[in-house]
Design goal:
Helix 1 runs antiparallel to helix 2 and helix 3 crosses helix 4. The chain is elongated, with a radius of gyration of 17 Å. Helices cover 45% and strands 13% of the residues. The protein contains seven helices and five strands; from the N terminus they run H-H-H-H-E-H-H-E-E-E-E-H. By secondary structure, the protein is an alpha+beta fold. A hairpin with a 2-residue loop joins strand 4 and strand 5. Bound molecules: FE2/S2 (inorganic) cluster.
C-alpha cells in the first residue's frame, strides 16, 4: 500500500467492512484507513463514528491516544529520531537539531517538497546502536550528522 491514496468514502467503507465483525474493530479499522490514505482525516472519523455508533469525540480520543495515528498526511518518507534516554546520552538532541536544519523543517512537520516528515519517538528498541533513527520501516543505528545526510540523500532520490 502506498498510504497516499486520496480520500474515497466508498473505498473507506470497504476497508471498514473488512473488520466489521472483529472484536475491538476500531483499531484495525483505523490502521487500515491510515495505511490506505496516509492519515486519519475528519471524514474518516465521521464515517467510523457512524459505522460503530460512537461519538466523533470517542473516535478522535482513540486517534489522539495512539501516537502511530496521524491527522495530516505524511511526506513520502517518515524519519523518526529517537530521543529516549540511551539515544539522548549519545547525542540525539544535537542530531535532531541537525536534522531540522538539514531538512529545513521542524519536528512533526513535512518538508516543502513533501519528501520527508520528521518526528521524534521514544525508543526504537535499538538502544545498543544509539543514536537510532528509523526511515519508513528501516532502522539505522549510530547515526551522526554525516550519516544522516547520506541517508537522506539516498531516500531523497527515491521519489
Ligand atoms: S533509547 Fe533510542 S533506541 Fe532505545
Amino acid at each position: 500500500m502506498s498510504g497516499r491514496a486520496m480520500w474515497s468514502e466508498e473505498r473507506a467503507s470497504s476497508l471498514i467492512s473488512n473488520h466489521q465483525d472483529q472484536r475491538g474493530a476500531l483499531l484495525p479499522m483505523l490502521h487500515a484507513l491510515q495505511e490506505e490514505f496516509g492519515c486519519i482525516e475528519d471524514a474518516a472519523i465521521r464515517l467510523l463514528a457512524k459505522t460503530l455508533n460512537l461519538s466523533r469525540a470517542e473516535v478522535h480520543g482513540v486517534v489522539s491516544f495512539y501516537h502511530d495515528f496521524r491527522r495530516t498526511r505524511a511526506g513520502r518518507h517518515v524519519i523518526k529520531i529517537c530521543r529516549a534516554e540511551a539515544c539522548q546520552a549519545m547525542g540525539a538532541e544535537s542530531l535532531i537539531e541537525h536534522a531540522q536544519r538539514h531538512l529545513s523543517t521542524d519536528l512533526g512537520t513535512t518538508t516543502t517538497d513533501d519528501a520527508f516528515t520528521l518526528e521524534a519517538v521514544y525508543c526504537l528498541g535499538n538502544c545498543a546502536l544509539s543514536p537510532a533513527i528509523m526511515i519508513d520501516a528501516q532502522l539505522h543505528g549510530r547515526v551522526d550528522a554525516a550519516r544522516f545526510n547520506a541517508l537522506v540523500g539516498v531516500y531523497g532520490k527515491d521519489q
